[in-house]
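Note to self: keep these together.
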Amino acid sequence: MSAKPAALPGWVSFSTSGLGGIFGWLIIHPVNTCSVRMNLASLQNPGKQLSLPSFFSKTCKQEGFMSLYSGLGAGIWRQVFYASSRYGLFQIFRDTMAKYREIDFAARMSMATLSGGIAAYISCPCEVSLVRMSNDNSLPVAERRNYKGIMDCASRIVREEGIPAFWRGSTPFVMRASLVGATQVGTYDQFKSVYSSWGIKGGLNVTASSMTAGLVYSVVTMPFESAKNRMASQKPNAEGVLPYRSTFQTITTVASQEGASTLFNGFAPYFMRCGGHTVLMFFAVEELQRQYRAKVMA
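Structure:
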């Protein structure tokens, strides 16, 4: 059996995770914008089923391709805080535990769940800004907030709604991120070990592990993604009451009023985002960490 790679310094785990997340996000951001808009389009068109090709074509024709990069700044800042913390913390937790016991599937799941939840809470302000900026152009003109950029979005939220607005919808985001930690980071690490034992090595191992992890976490987390999007983008009604108050209240309300399948509106681009970003991110992280081990730790 080959020796396990030496544990990396904490700053390397964090920085390479963040850089890998940013690399993947630069490519995947348009898909994420389609996913958010398709998911929230059900608010304006209850019961209407949307297809990714037609939605993508219509958006590009009406607003131009670059409109799909709305909110890119918020997306990058989200990776700085979220991706670096999520996978960075997981690697630190895993390498620390490995000094005392064998790392099994249950240990991977618990550490990944914890790291995902912590990372999500830290990055909530970026997530709220990302959802709002990505979806703003798809709203009726009278309802648009017309943010000029990430700083304008953040400052207006503080000024108009108060700092707590950044954590509106934080519960579904943290719950979803904990599931993402378990079903993406945890399963990726587990699948790497499983596929390696089957003789699948190198880049093929990373591809197979990340795509499998991306599929698992897409299916599990989509309802929470829908709840997070609605809670982050909602506005008070005429009485000043917000329609969505908690994760499960949002999920059950949408399922009962619009059908459970509505929670999976935008699944195609969501899976393309999840699977695509997972592959790109882990390829970048693995290569950066391989280079560090070869040139610094050799």
